Amino acid sequence: MEQVLSENNLVISVDAMGGDKSPQVVIEGLAIAAKHNRDIRFLVFGDEEQVQAELKKYPILKDVCQLRHSPERVHNEDKPSQVIRNKNTSMYQAIDAVRQGEAQAVVSAGNTGALMAISKMLLKTIQKIHRPAIVSIMPHRYGKYVMLDLGANTECNAVNLAEFAVMGNVLAKHALGIERPKIALLNIGAEEMKGKEEIRHASQMIRNSSMDIDFIGYIEPHEITFGKADVVVADGFTGNVALKTMEGTAKLIRSMVKDAVKSSFLALLGLPFMYFAVRKISKTMNPKLYNGAMFVGLNGLSVKSHGGTDALGFSVAINNAATLVRQNFVATIKEELEHIDLEEISQDIFYEVY
Amino acid sequence: MEQVLSENNLVISVDAMGGDKSPQVVIEGLAIAAKHNRDIRFLVFGDEEQVQAELKKYPILKDVCQLRHSPERVHNEDKPSQVIRNKNTSMYQAIDAVRQGEAQAVVSAGNTGALMAISKMLLKTIQKIHRPAIVSIMPHRYGKYVMLDLGANTECNAVNLAEFAVMGNVLAKHALGIERPKIALLNIGAEEMKGKEEIRHASQMIRNSSMDIDFIGYIEPHEITFGKADVVVADGFTGNVALKTMEGTAKLIRSMVKDAVKSSFLALLGLPFMYFAVRKISKTMNPKLYNGAMFVGLNGLSVKSHGGTDALGFSVAINNAATLVRQNFVATIKEELEHIDLEEISQDIFYEVY
Fold first, then answer.
1. In chain A, N or C: fewer CB atoms in 10 Å?
2. Number of neighbours of residue A154 by Cβ within 10 angstroms
3. 126-165 in A: which are within 8 Å (CB) of B?
4. pLDDT averaged over chain B?
5. pLDDT digits (tens, 9 = 90+) for B218-276
6. How many helices (H) and strands (E) does chain B have?
7. Is A270 near chain B, with CB under 8 Å?
8. Whole-number Å distance between alpha carbons of A309 and A315
9. Strand pairing partners for B107?
C-alpha cells in the first residue's frame, strides 16, 4: 500500500482508536469522507487487527488508506503529562506523521487535553503566536461563524486575544469564504469601557495595529446567534462556557418540545404535518454537521472530533481538516502575521495608558 | 392616603419612571400584583401628573398605593457616578424609602448600573459580605434554580464566590422552597484541578468551612439546564455570558422553528394541532415569568425588572420582591453569616497551598 501516499495527494493522518466507538465509527467516517473527497489519502494509526477488520467492510477505502500498527492508545482518563511521554499510542503516532511531513493534518476523536498537549509538543506553535487556540465553525441565524478560543487557554492576555483575532480572520476567509469577515471580541457590554481589562486592552491593540481586519468592537453573547460577527474572539474559559451553554439550552428546548408534544394527543396527530419543517431544522442545527474543533496556531493542523460522534460527524471533522489543508491555512496565517508585531503594539499601549 | 402605609403591611417602593414604557407598564404591573397579593402596599415614586393618570385606570390600586412626586428620572445613558449625586430622581427616592425603613424592598425597571450604584450607596453591603450580587431564578428541565452573580462584579475572588454560595443557598431555600439546595460552582470541567484559580480556591474554601450547605463541587454549563444544581455560582462576567448565551440560543431556535414552519405548507396545516403543546412550552419558557433580578448582599432588597418587560413581567418582579420580604431574606442571610468567617478560612487555605 506504500504507493497510496507517494502520489501527490492530500494526506490526513487518523487516530483510529480515539472516541467512544472506535475504531468502528472512525473507519466508517473515513468511508463517508472518501466518497466526497476523491483527493484525500488516509494514514491510519491503531490496533492492526481491529482496524483491518473494519477497513475490509468498506471497499472504497481499499486504495486510499494506509494502516500502521500502534500498540497502545490514549484513554480518556490519561493525563497530558503522561501521554506526551508515550510514543506508542495511535494518537501520538498520528500527530507525529504531521510533524514528519507525511500528512498535512491529523484528526482524532480522543481525549482533548492529550491531543492538545501532544500537538503542541510535536508541531510547535507558529512563530509570533504565543498560544494555540481551539476553533469551531457554528451556525447562526443567517449563516455560519467562527468562534475561538473554545477551551485551550483558561486565562488569556490582550496579546493572545489579538492573535486569536488574526487567526479567526484567516479561518473565516478560507473556511467560510467570507471576503472581509467582521471580527468582534466577546464582552458583556457594548461600550468601550465595559468588561475585563484584557478585553479592553485587546480592543485598543487591534485598533492601533496595522492589521487589515474589519474589527467591529465588542459583541454580547445574545448577539452571536444573530450573525453580528463572523468571528467571535474570547478567552478559552469564556468561550467554553458560551459553547456549553448553547449546547445545554438547545438540549433543554428540544426535550421540552418533545415532552409537550408527547403529552398532547392533538399534537401527536399533527406531528406528520411537521415532518419537513422538523427535518429542515434538524439539518441546520444538527451538531454533527459542526463537528471538528480545530487547533490553530500550530505548525500543522490538528482536528478534534467529538468523542461521542457517529460516522457522519467524524466525516465532517475530516472535511474540515481537508478544507483547511487545501486552503493552505497554516502558511496563510504565518504570512498574515509576518507584518504584525503585536508585542510591540502592546508595549506602546501600555505606555499610553499607564 | 397616609394611612396606606401606617398599617402593618408589606411595603414595596416602586420607581414608576424606569423601563421602556413607564409609567404605563409599571402601574399596570402593580395592578396585576395587587390582585394576587392583598397584603402588599406600594409607595410609588414618579412624575405626579403622569403616574396619577395611570393610577386612576385601576380601581384596585386606589387603597394600596401612595404616590410621591419625584421631579426627575434616571435615563438609560446616565452614568452611575452621576446618578448617585442626584437625589431628585424617582429611582433614588424609591431606594431611599427602603433605607429609611418606609419600605422593605424596591423594584425598578430602570438602568441596571444606576440601580446597583444607588442601592449600594444607600443600603450598604451587609457586614461580612464584600460584594453584592445580581441573582435570578431560572427554569431547568425539572424545576427552577438560582444563579448568581449575573453581572454585578466583573472580577471576583474566592471569598466573593464563597459568599455568593451562602446567599444563593438562603435564596433557594426561601424563594424555591428547597430544603437542602445543591450548590455548585460554574466551571469548564468536573475535576478538582480544572478552571480558574479563584474557582478552585473557592471550592477548597467552601469544603473547609463550617458552612452547613450541600456543596456538590463544579457544574459545567451544559449541565445547568438539567437540574444538576439548585444554586449555580459564578463571577459576574461568566454568569452574564451564560445568561445572555441562553437568551440568544433560545431566540435562535425560536426563529428557526418559525421560519421552518412558515416555509412548509404542510406544517402550516398542522399548526392548529400544536396549539396546546406550544402554549405549554411558552408557559414554562416565557422569559416574563422569570423577570426580576435581585441584588443580594445589601441591607434591604433591590429588584431590577427587565427594562423592556410588559405589565405581567413587572408584576413577577414585584412578586419576587414580596416573597423575599415575607421570608425575611436579608435577616436570614445575616444570621447564616454570623457563624462563618470566610476571610479566616481564606487565610488558612493560602498558608496550606503556598
1. C
2. 19
3. 140-141, 151, 154-155
4. 88
5. 999 999 989 999 999 999 999 999 999 998 888 888 787 777 777 777 767 767 767 76
6. 15, 11
7. yes
8. 10
9. B14, B303
